[in-house]
Amino acid sequence: MRLRIRHRTTYRYSSPVSENYNEVRLQPVSDAAQDCHRFELVTRPGSKLQRHQDFHLNLVDHFYIPGPHESLVVEAQSEVTTTGVAARLAGAGFPMSRIGECRRIEGCFDFLQATPYVGLDVGVLRLAQEAASGAEDAWEAVLAMSGFVHREFSYDSSATTSNTTLAEVLVHRRGVCQDFAHVLLGLCRSMGIPARYVSGYLHVGDEAGWRGNLATHAWIEVFLPGHEWLPLDPTNNRPADQHHIKVAVGRDYADAAPLRGNFKGRATQEMAVELEIVRVEASGGARPSVEGGSCFDVIGS
Amino acid sequence: MGLNPRAVIDETEVEPKVPTTPAAEPVSSWLSGYTAVGGEYDEVRGIDGGPQPQYLPLFGELDAFDGAELRRRTETAQRIIHEQGITYNVYGDPRGMERPWQLDPIPFVISAAEWRVIERGLEQRAILLNRVLADCYGPQELIRSGALPPSLLFAQPDFLRACHGIRPLDGVHLQLYAADIARSPDGRWWVLSDRTQIPTGAGYALANRLVTSRVLPEAFRACRVNRLAPFFRELRERLARMSPRPSENPRVVLLTPGPYNETYFEQAWIARYLGYPLVEGQDLTVRDDRVFLKTLSGLEPVDVILRRVDDDWCDPLELRNDSTLGVPGLVEALRAGNVAVANSLGSGLVQSPAMMAFLPGLSRSLLGEDLLVPSLATWWCGQPGEMNHVLERLDDLYLRPAFRGGPVAVENAGALSRAGREALKDRIRFQPHTFVAQERIRLATAPGWDGTRISPHPVALRVYLVASGEGYKAMPGGLARVSPDPGARFITLQRGGSSKDTWVLADGPVDELSLLQSSKQSVELRRVGNNLPSRLADNFYWLGRYCERADATARLLRATLLRFSPESSGSAMPLLEPLLSAMAAQGQFPSLSERPELRTNPEALEAELLAAIFDGERRGSVRRLADQLQVLAMTVRDRTSNDLWRVLSTVDDRVTLPPGSPVVLAGEAVGVLSQTIIGLAAFHGLARENMTRAQGWRFLDMGVRIERCMYLASFLDHTLRSPEADNPSLLEAVLEVADCALTYRSRYNLLPNIAAVYDLVLLDDTNPRSLLFQLNQLVKHFERLPREKESALPSPAYRHLLSCLTRLRLSDPRSLLGLEQNWHKTEAGEAIQEVMRDLPKLSDAIAVSYFAHSAISRAGSSPA
Question: Which residues on adjacent β-strands are paired with residue B448?
Fold first, then answer.
């Protein structure tokens, strides 16, 4: 699927602010499962954009606006082709009995740890053991845990905020895709399965049967030796595929947040997001499908 | 010094000077009763029980003193500490935020030979830790080769991923390093902990030296003690060399978390000693990946930051989002290589106790040598063998969190119940990597003064090293910390405890260098200090405004209380109304239109008046203003004298009623207000007589002038609107509030006349309380402001000022005569209204021009 994405975030401040420093992770990745052809980022007021790669190799654009201003618009436009083919499990998974070997694989170190959002304790471990229901294969265990999360947790966009931690989600068992992802990360890591957070977009067009926030989305990837990183969307309890546009990865939401910033001024801010994902047909005709921005608690404020 | 009964008895036993240890010849009467606590090493007794040679010269000198003399010298030490303002902030101590520094005058003495061993051992350790840091923030070969377990790095909150790949200049992460060391019972030195993030306390060591060398000058000379200054010179040279910009005079700043930090005194002290500006995060800004200091004359580039802010708080953009102490964009500026930070961001990684367990192995693999000074035996439970060892010996070990923010330390697992111990073991087994266990040790003792005699006290020593060339140089000395409690295992200054100077004896000539006394060197004479950071100008400005507001409020309240009499409240009301409504207009008093019952209920009115003085919760009350003054004074503490600070503390004390104190009478309140006014006058007097006419003073005085204009104008507007405006009684009140009654009486031998009174309070430019005088002063200040001088046209702020001034000058107070009402519609009245309208704009314009790039909270708001 070739998709055109326009993602505009508008901040309005109750009084003028200055020294507004921001970093954004908005450029879709190019990897075996998707290809990002084009990416443009514009801010209003205008700014000089710079970029670097962070520790998890995400592309980070950063900019600052020094003078006083009352609003800030960050608009990213990109065009991506998703295949959803590469990240499929081929052949057998990996035995749980040998999962401890992951602790010695370099790229996995970070994704077995507790983090501020994903705290690990005995309670999480017990939940993971219950959810995995004795699966002997790691991928089976992950699928069982994903099913558990999908079944036992209800989707509720008013229950949590972007600051909600795993421990808090476990209390009420409600939340949005970010929370579902954090829960499954916690379950996987407790079992010794390396798992990382993915932020991105979900494009389902007019297809029915999808749950969750149809705009900015979050899911996870697990690592199994011999299979690299396998994506899985606990909110919809299925592997991520051509509907998912991957943007950034990290240990948890904090590492992969699409926008974060910091300004000076005694102001409160209001944030609005407009997101438009248009399917660009191979023949050239575009079939628009607009997904509105009710996703703010996901992006964070 | 407290004399407890037990200590007195001990002294009488000592008095006869009979040697109690016949084996060793007593070299000093002070040592005859000195016996080490059983089991631990003692610095004087050593292992053989005899007085150690390094202590002989000291005790030889002390022999000349009796108890009274040592007591006197201890008191002198306390006095110097008080005068120098040497303090230590204790968290969670509401009133006594600043605690005087505790110093035991008897120094800790180390011989030259022994010092060389310590110095070499710690230098090796600093080099090692630096290598580990360079690897963790670079190639991570230690993880790959298995020398360090991955979770030791990746599970640590102190591993800052944003800083991975940033290579500090010369590859040196630790410009400064400190280690806490102590002796084991056999007299060997051990490292208790490493300080790599922010090695604190070097400034206190310097302060201890300053005090002790003055209190015991004879002994200090006789002992030939190595000086501390060469260490600080080395540090200054080192930091200058770090500058990424080739420059003769690189700009180095000391980044402080602010006056509420526990070691703020030390930070201010070091900044002054090394000649660096003391800045907060808000004072710095990043533009185009370069760091700048915001000053009154614009942005000035910063090359090197010596930080006292924890690394993860240093950049709210890439590190902790909730930090208000940092500088957004700092990490990116580091990445671009445009600024240097000491110690490097992320260097806290290697001070975790878990790291200590690996240092012996790392030393062998990285340096090819054994650790010269061993670490306290440490087991990291992240390895199965070590965990089992810890589980078996749980009761003998001290269990600590392996990383910052980890589980709570368990000092003595043996004291736990059986169930508690099992639960603890389960927690260890579940997340073993978050625990370390260390050998429980008892600290060695050294002689200290306990008020009546010299006795052994547990001591640990913090030693400081600075990077120099390929290696490190140690400060010959250090911060010796003393526990009040015999048999102590740990010493934290947060929980009490004292400190000592550390004397490292010289075996060659003593380098007499001092950074403070350059009396014989030629200096370039200067009449201006370094450019004032905008934030400080902002704080001075508001200090001036609050001070004046407190003064004006106290005067208005005093005038009101003097005219208020519960018996004749009805007849006095028309005269009181303009006074009350002036306060209401400032939000300091309920408006009479909303609370009409105050007109007829004298008790309620009196209660309101008293609340306007003493109620700390009430907006604009004298008490509240005094509290706010203290907070503001704290922020400019570094730039003002201690006396100014003390005066403001007494003002606050006067209006603070102890809880549960009896009801204050109106008459007493008048006395309190008068004292407040006198206290504030003392503040103004000190400011005028002690502060150089530099930018700080200028902004303070501008604050005073603007506030006085605004308060006076508002008050006069209300009195002119009163139907009683020409009533001599009300005019009397005007003179009193404006503090002009005496002048009036000396000039006019008649009852107050409206034209004469308003001429005096508005237009008399020889009267320092008149409105015109304030505006004239403001014009003088404006002409000397940095950027005001450079522009051809007056700035918007200056225009407001000139227009007010012209309007006021041209008004004629005689137009007030012969009217029956509507006095406020005369020229004089309208000039007052213009001042009320335009001066807030002036204040805003000052904020925009001079503070805007720093103002976060207060700019543009009026005192509240």
Answer: B455
